[in-house]
Fold this protein.
Amino acid sequence: MYIRLSREDGDKQESESIGNQRKIIQRYIQENNLMFIKEYIDDGISGTTFDRPGFNELLHDIENKSINMVITKDLSRLGRDYIKTGEYIESYFPQNKVRYVAITDGIDTFADSTNNDITPFKAIMNDMYAKDISRKIRSVYKEKQKNGENLCSIPAFGYKKHPDIKNKLIIDNNVSDIVKKIFEMYANNHGCVEIANYLNNNKYLSPSGYRKTGLVQDFNKTNYDWNKVTLSNILKNEVYIGNTIQNKKTVVSYKVKKIMSVEKDKQIRVNNTHEPIINKDLFEKVQCMLNKRGTNFKPKYDYLLRGLLYCYHCKNKLQIVVKKKSNTNSYIYITCCNHKSKGCYPLNINYKKFENYIIDLIKKIIREYSSPRFLHDSYEKFNKTRIDTNKNYKKKIMQIDKLISETNDRIDKIYMDRLNGIILEDDYVRYYNKFTSERSNLITQKQDLEKVNFKVKENVNTYSINNLIESFLKLEPIEKIYLYRLIDKIEIDKNKKVFIHFNFSSIKIE
């Protein structure tokens, strides 16, 4: 007897149950005076694959001549891949002198029956059913993803599953401070190797260690070390600013389970689905640094233009080299590391003079394009948007408060109806559970809105704004993160011509 059950059976779960299949096959065995040898079961495994423990054991016993007949309730129990199913019925079973019977489909390979002639068509129908179920399941999953539901089986480090709301994340306060520490250290010029060493030296368990042991720190730990790959994944993950990005991976088809990556424009992104651990400014700063420097940097001298300088010819990053002239003096210059190995050009440009020149140019451009009047108008527009957003949040919170009040009234009413004998106890419990569940969801929605709702001063001190704008335009000292946001890269050619690729245009400097 071969019995198989999987989730793809959907609404037919009861009729296709293990017990029901067993009864039908046992009755067939008794009615036909057959000798029962063994039962093979695959519970919870799809029929689109034939790599199943029970089925593999059945094939092993066939090849050892232990059995010479296989019975299933119907053809779909054998499999839902019409090509593989046909190979077993038309080729494998006959070659091994095995009789195959699918009871409810009337298939018997040793009988001269017209039912056997339509076996291929039934196999195709079973295959189409599996394909249709797969398509429906994918559609349901994608719809949930578009609604911002987090379908990941394991939450990102720093989060845990909401105890009451399915597919929603909440902050895991046990380890959220570690996530903050990782971002802050990286933003302060500590590379991933340095951060990993800090976490390991202080006996913090890695995400896998925390999941398996429930411990944040273990001073006797000899395993579950942090590494730069784990840290890099954390630093790039938008889940920490409250966004959910899913459908990053998919399988080739419902038959071919090989996993492949999905292009970014086809991934499903929903913003503000849960409370963030990292503020967006810090996250953006880290992304800029990742793009310019990578994850494993620990520079001895952290120069302002590091990560921005490129060779015009070979397109590789240029090196900033320190050459000591004496114990107190040193010469810092820019060069291309490929000038010896790949025949590029050495350059030899004084770094300090070049940096000062670039800074003066940047200040000139910013002052030209960012007048005080323009910045003041931009601020006023931004401030008005924040005020309008704040009012919308307040309006939504008031609407939810009204719904919560109405739900409380319903609960009070069914309670009085129960006391007065208008409704039965079972009905009261059913309604009570329904209304309390709705109220819990409303309360959670209100809490989420209150967290993103920010207070804004509608009257702003004009004098303070003008001082802030004037301070910004001076750019003293100039911060590296703003330089990264403004400039994509700076190329230098063999004649020391400079090409600055801004994030809004490109210019050439003689």
Summary: The chain has four domains: 2-142, 159-293, 309-369+475-509, 372-463. The chain has a mean pLDDT of 82. Residues 159-293 form a domain with the Hect, E3 ligase catalytic domain fold fold (CATH 3.90.1750.20).
